Amino acid sequence: MKKTIALLPGDGVGQEVMRGAVHVLRSIEKRFGHDFDLKEFPIGGTAIDLTGSPLPNDTLRACQNSDAVLLGAVGGPRWDHSKMRPEDGLLQLRKELGVYVNLRPVQSMSALLERSPLKSEIVKDTDLLIVRELTGGIYFGEKKRDVDRAEDALVYHKFEIERTVRRAYEQARKRKGKLTSVDKANVLESSKLWRSTVSELATEYRDVVTEHLLVDHAAMKLILKPAHFDVIVTENMFGDILSDEASVLLGTIGVLPSASLRDDDFGLYEPVHGSAPDISGTDSANPIGMIMSAAMMLKLSFHMHEEYEAVERAVREVLNAGYRTADMRTSRFQSVSTSQLIDQVVYRI
Ligand code: NAI
Ligand code: MG
């Protein structure tokens, strides 16, 4: 299959981990006989330095003309005081591309159990997917500010809830058949609309078990009993907070991938972590979040399931063989560099 993929490495460790995705895609291409057209474009601080804009027109156009986009990370102290912010490039990109739903899988890996701050009996059976509404809610509502009064509007339209919840149900159908919808329906009108919309859709997805949880209860349960969950669907701000909370279950943010999608097969795929300025340039960043983001692209945008499995299996084997970047290291293992870990994954594919 021929596919055009825009690569946006961005800043800091984004550049370092993107090399992992590229090597992995080249090895998948060879093994399965595909033709991936990979081209790099600047975004974020790197793009500000080169062109004066965090999202140059050429980059946006290339993304719009691609089958999928892979992004590393943007930002860093170098641009913290510049007039233009690298992060604005990413927000603008998501909005321009219309990717309204964000998928974040969190699955425990036996090799990482020792790194989790929670007991391994609690985290060992974690296998959940957070489905977060990405382009509505309080982050996009009207804002007002006086000296001693501030206002943020939390607005949801039914169609925004419905299209996100449908995606979540489709995922639940392919997974363990359980959907937990998270809201604050005892207090918020937008949550009442959220809950009634989910209840309506539940009648169309009778093969999936539907459960409603209030967000405060969900926050507790995520730590007390993560294995309770299969698919969690929620609005923008609750999803933002719960997905950071869930990332702690695994003990490092460096392994977590994400996908931002719309109604066609197009997707924007990026690791959950940022540009990690504290370790950038030392060849020590964990490339697994980026590599698994590329794997999600193979599965969700290109429907290449066997290829996805090949990457996932290679990553698991590398961890089981004891290869760890510094963020995954425990006393039993020496750490390896980003490049060494990438080489190991590629070798196994
Ligand atoms: P961060 O995710 O970059 O780093 C948080 C901590 O996790 C740091 O100690 C870092 O060393 C570690 N870490 C992150 N990725 C890692 C990896 N692959 N391997 C090993 N360790 C890793 O978040 P932080 O420090 O809050 O933000 C740094 C910059 O990144 C800021 O400019 C921020 O705006 C930007 N950022 C960008 C994101 C994006 O591009 N999607 C997301 C989050 C932050
Ligand atoms: Mg966040």
UniProtKB/TrEMBL annotation:
UniProt remark on cofactor binding: Binds 1 Mg(2+) or Mn(2+) ion per subunit.
Domain of life: Bacteria
Cofactor: Mg(2+); Mn(2+)
Molecular function (Gene Ontology), one example: 3-isopropylmalate dehydrogenase activity
Binding site for substrate: 94, 104, 132, 216
PROSITE patterns attached to this UniProt entry: IDH_IMDH
Gene3D superfamilies: Isopropylmalate Dehydrogenase
Site (Important for catalysis): 139, 184
Catalytic activity: (2R,3S)-3-isopropylmalate + NAD(+) = 4-methyl-2-oxopentanoate + CO2 + NADH
Documented EC number(s): 1.1.1.85
Isopropylmalate dehydrogenase-like domain mapped to chain residues: 4-345
Keyword vocabulary terms for this entry: Amino-acid biosynthesis, Branched-chain amino acid biosynthesis, Cytoplasm, Leucine biosynthesis, Magnesium, Manganese, Metal-binding, NAD, Oxidoreductase
Pathway assigned to this chain's UniProt record: Amino-acid biosynthesis; L-leucine biosynthesis; L-leucine from 3-methyl-2-oxobutanoate: step 3/4
Entry binding sites for NAD(+): 274-286
Subcellular location(s) of the protein: Cytoplasm
UniProt main location, coarse: cytoplasm
Binding site for Mg(2+): 216, 240, 244
Protein task: Catalyzes the oxidation of 3-carboxy-2-hydroxy-4-methylpentanoate (3-isopropylmalate) to 3-carboxy-4-methyl-2-oxopentanoate. The product decarboxylates to 4-methyl-2 oxopentanoate.
Protein family (similarity comment): Belongs to the isocitrate and isopropylmalate dehydrogenases family. LeuB type 1 subfamily.
Subunit structure, interactors included: Homodimer.
PANTHER family assigned: 3-ISOPROPYLMALATE DEHYDROGENASE
Name of this chain's protein: 3-isopropylmalate dehydrogenase
Source species of the chain: Fictibacillus iocasae
